[in-house]
Amino acid sequence: MKRGICPAGMSPFFIFCQNIFPVCIFLLILHDRLKVCLMLDDLTQSIETLLARYEKVKGQNVVLSQRLEACEAKLEANKSTIEILEKKIRNLQLSEAFELSSRKENKDAVKRVEKLIREIDNCIVLLGDE
Predict the structure, then answer these.
(1) Cβ within 8 Å of residue 12, ≥6 positions away
(2) Are the C-beta atoms of residues 1 and 7 closer than 8 Å to each other?
(3) Residue 23's domain spans which residues?
(4) Which of 6, 38, 81, 92 could be disulfide-bonded to 10 (CB atoms 3.0-4.6 Å)?
């Protein structure tokens, strides 16, 4: 076969296309695999970012849960303190009411004693006149 002449009347372009076709198919497959690899890399990076965010939020959740428990305990303690103070207020109000009534009774008793003293003084004066 002479150089530059194609077998059975085939054009050199046709022979070139026959030889290059498998290479083109290989390159297309390689390109598709490369795209898949890049997509997997992007997906892997997204998953890693998501996991990092999840761990961060998980840690924040633990801290917030602890703070909530502390606040709830403090709330219960404050409720108990309020209850105790309300009882003390009621007791003070009752004792003040008794004290006021006692003062009034004392004033009445003092008035009666003073009246009795005046009557005794009058009796002494009357006895002294005789």
Answers:
(1) 4, 6
(2) yes
(3) 9-96
(4) 6
